[in-house]
Structures are given as C-alpha cells and as structure tokens.
Write a structure and sequence with these properties.
528 residues; alpha+beta; two-stranded antiparallel ribbon; 9 strands
Length: 528
C-alpha cells in the first residue's frame, strides 16, 4: 500500500544549518558554500536517481544551477535567525514506476509551489535495496521575488491605527506596528492543503496506472478506520532497524501491524459468516420455520453419517475426516451452538469480544506515544536547563532581552518541552527511569493483548468449518439465491421435516438405549 509520509521542516541558520549543505546532501552534487568557503559533498550518499530545479516564470535562469541558487539564498538570508528553506520528505508509491513517480512529484511541486512563486529543488532517492523505500526530497525558497527576479522582503511593517485612522504610540512613545507577511507561504493551513493535494494527485496517478490502491493523508481516526496506529520510529531507530538491529519501537510496531492484520482478517471473516447466516435465516423463514427449531448439530451428525456410508452400509471415509468432523461438532456442543439461532448468537458474541481488546490496544499505544514524547522532551529540557536558568538569573531588562534574542531557539525549545511535560505529567516530577519502566510494562501488556486475539482466530476458523459442513450436508438450508415456487418450497419443507423426524427418532432410540444400559448396570450392581 502507498505510504502517507509527508514531512515538512524549516531550515534555520540559528540551528547551524546551511541551505547549500542540505542541497548537496539531497542532490549528491559537489557544491561550494560562499558563506563559509567550504565544499559540501557527501560521497557516501547512494540511491539518488533523479534531480531537477523547477523555476517560476519570473526567476532568473541562472538559478537553474543548484550552486548559484542556494548561495544566492544564503546571501540574502543574512540574519542570525534567518529561515533558509522549507524542506519536504515525501514517500513515493512503490506501485508506480520511477518515471511515473518523477512526473507525480514534478506535477505536485509545479501546482502547489512553483505556480505561487517558489523555486523547487527536487531529488528522488531509492536507497538499497531498490524499491523498498522510494522517496522525494524537496527544498523550497521562502523569500518571494518581484517580476524582475529580485528578492523581496518577507514581511513589511503596518502601523496600528485608532478609530480615527491615526497612528498609536506604545508606552515608550514609539509608533505601534504589526508585521505583515508579503506572501502567505508560512500560513499553518498550507500544510493541510498541500497534503490533501498530494493525496488527490497521487490517487489520480495510481488510477491512471491501473492500480487499485489509494492513499489517504488523514489519520485512521479521521478516516473512520478501526486500526491501531503504529509509533513513529524517527531517523535513529529507522537506521538501526535497516541495519538489522531490533529495537523496542520496531518490535512494538511489528506487534501492532500483526494485530491489525489479524483483527482485519477476523472482522472480514465474521462479517462474511454473518452475511451467510442471514441467508440461512431467510431460507428458513421462507419454509415457515424458525431458527431455534433447527437442531443444527443433530442434523449435521445425521447427514455426515449418511454421506460416509454407501448402500451396503459400508463406511467409506478416512479417519482424518471423521476426526475433523468430530472436532467441529464437539466445538458446537462445548459452546452450546446447537441450533441456527445459537450460531447467530455465538457470532454476535465473537464479534463483540474483539472490540474491548482493540480499544485497550489503542489506549496503550497512545500512552506509549505520550511516554516516548515525554522522554524526548525531558531529555531536551534537561540539556537546556543551564541556558534557561541563566536567563532567569538576569534582572536587567535590556540585558535579559538581548540574552533572549541570542538564545531564542534554545529558550523556545525549553518552553515547548516544559509545556508538554506539565500538561502530561501534572503534579509529578519527571523521572526518566520511571517512564522507561512504564514503557516496558506497556510493551508486555500489548504483547499479551496480541495473544488474546489468537483464540478468536481459532474459533473463527472453526465457524468457517461449520459453514462448510452446512453447505455440504444440509443444502436444504441454503437459499441458493433462487425465487422459491410453491412446489420448490414444499420440497424443502418435506426434506427438512424428514431429516428432523429421522433425527428425532434416532435421538429417542439413543435415549431408550441409554436408559436400558443404565437399568442393566443398576441390576448388575444389585446382583453383586
């Protein structure tokens, strides 16, 4: 199935990032950075199969050269906290050829980015082994250009006016103003728009290629899919898994995928059984009988006996067939599935039993994701405590503002981590050891829940055998999709009535024989 991975990040100088270095990494080109006078080249990068730069109509033609483009970006983005590029990592469908995938990513970039004035630098990677993880990297410029291809300001000042249209001063006597973006490329709503556009374009390409697969960029919950989401592994864990190193999160995701497959099979099988049983009930209703009046086990045993005995009364079946049939009828008696109505009730119970297990597994995986995030943020906050503490110790306003400006990213990261931890650890101290112990317990609990699904799978397989024997041995209970004439309905009624009469007679004979053997045993006991 196509993968919905569509990651969006911002390259920032404040984090020590370089647009030239990132372009060299994704393209595999050897680029020279004029900012630090260093060559950027990643010789160990493999699996780069396609690169291209897409220019809007007003961009200078020389920007089609990767080295020229990103050095120009680095030159114009000259603040210490400049945003250099918007970066995308997008999974490509393995169901399409590489040529089709290149057309797909090119069309998406042209429609969503280049047509708005952004320059798009595209690279398609297909790392070893080929075909297992094809994906595209896209870098976008973040500063608009005018009609002559000159870089424009990202934002301009707009003075705040009062009700009379006059400018307003702040407490320091300076004119109040707001920052107004030149373009709307940084709007948060764009992420949802871009993802939805990628979904539509990719599905159109899949349809044109004659593929039945489709992708949705919505979460399982928003799609109404009853499936447990896996836990995000991150680049470090993914790299370890690719090298064959088993990780806790990797094992967890394997358990989740196994449970999803198993639960999906169970739901589909139970639904088919219920649909089949609805046809059986309809067939019974058509011959003026009730499901509780059909002694299913007795009729199956009688029909099986007839099917394995020829006209001379000689058995003609294998021991294996007898054992298999005995296992089915023993299951039916053990679970009190004696009539068609009992079978209907048992299917309803089996269907409902899986719901609490699925919900519990969803709750556990949700808690696991929260703990993983708590540990990530806890470690991040601890590494930034020194910067935050130093900021709190500064009392002079001007010095404090200067320190905040110089350490904005670290302080923002500390505050983000702190907010998440206070929200998800209310009134509790952070303890990495305690959270990791809880994680281990949750992993074990999830594995245990996974095993609880197995008995349902076994019982569902047994019910499929019941259906098979009913179809084979009791054709009178099958509607066959036919429109019953009065004559055909009467034939069915008589056939079932004959079976029921015979079954009743055999049951009475068995009861009488059992009573006689019991009386004989009692006489022998008295004679002793």
């Amino acid at each position: 199935m196509p993968c919905p991975h569509y990651s969006i990040k911002i390259s920032k100088r404040s984090k020590g990032q370089s647009a030239v270095a990132q372009a060299a990494y994704q393209s595999g080109d050897r680029l020279f950075s004029e900012r630090d006078n260093k060559t950027k080249y990643y010789s160990d990068k493999r699996g780069i199969i396609y690169t291209e730069i897409l220019l809007p109509v007003n961009a200078p033609h020389e920007y089609a050269d990767r080295n020229t483009l990103w050095n120009a970006v680095e030159a114009v983005e000259n603040n210490w906290n400049s945003q250099l590029a918007r970066r995308f990592e997008i999974a490509l469908p393995i169901e399409l050829s590489m040529e089709q995938s290149a057309d797909l990513i090119r069309e998406h970039c042209m429609e969503q980015f280049v047509s708005k004035g952004m320059i798009a630098d595209i690279a398609i990677h297909d790392p070893d082994p080929p075909g297992h993880n094809p994906h595209a990297h896209v870098m976008l410029t973040m500063r608009p250009m005018d009609e002559k291809g000159r870089w424009m300001e990202k934002a301009h000042r707009e003075y705040i006016l009062d009700e009379n249209g006059d400018r307003v001063r702040d407490e320091k006597g300076k004119w109040k103003f707001r920052k107004v973006p030149t373009v709307d490329w940084n709007e948060r709503s764009n992420a949802e728009i871009w993802r939805h556009a990628w979904e539509e374009t990719q599905n159109r390409y899949l349809e044109a290629a004659g593929r039945s697969e489709r992708i949705s960029m919505k979460s399982y919950q928003r799609q109404g899919i009853d499936r447990i989401p896996t836990v995000h592994m991150g680049p470090a864990v993914t790299a370890m898994e690719r090298r064959g190193i088993m990780t806790n999160i990797g094992n967890l995701n394997r358990d989740i995928k196994s449970a999803n497959v198993l639960m999906g099979v169970l739901k589909r099988t139970i639904l088919r059984l219920m649909n089949w049983l609805a046809e059986i009930r309809q067939a019974i209703t058509e011959i003026d009988m009730k499901p509780k009046e059909i002694p299913l086990v007795t009729l199956l045993e009688q029909s099986f006996e007839e099917s394995i005995t020829d006209r001379l009364g000689i058995k003609r079946t294998t021991q294996g067939e007898v054992q298999k049939f005995s296992a089915v009828t023993n299951y039916m008696r053990d679970h009190s599935v004696l009539t068609v109505e009992d079978l209907d009730s048992r299917l309803a119970v089996l269907s409902s039993e899986g719901i609490p297990i699925r919900e519990e597994m969803k709750n556990i995986t949700s808690r696991i994701r929260t703990i993983e995030k708590l540990i990530e943020y806890g470690d991040s906050r601890a590494s930034l405590d020194a910067v935050h503490d130093e900021y709190l110790r500064i009392h002079w306003k001007g010095k404090k503002e200067k320190f905040a400006a110089e350490h904005r990213d670290e302080l923002d990261a500390w505050n983000k981590a702190d907010r998440y931890m206070r929200k998800n650890l209310p009134g509790k101290d952070y303890s990495s050891d305690a959270l990791r112990a809880e994680l281990s317990a949750l992993y074990a609990e999830l594995s245990s829940l996974n095993e609880k699904i197995r008995p349902q799978q076994e019982e569902t397989e047994m019910l499929k055998e019941v259906r098979s024997y009913v179809k084979k041995l009791l054709p009178e209970l099958e509607s066959g999709g036919e429109e019953l004439t009065p004559e055909r309905r009467q034939e069915k009624i008589e056939a079932i009535q004959q079976r029921l009469a015979k079954a009743k007679a055999e049951a009475q004979a068995n009861a009488a024989a059992y009573a006689k053997s019991k009386e004989a045993a009692a006489r022998d006991e008295r004679g002793r």
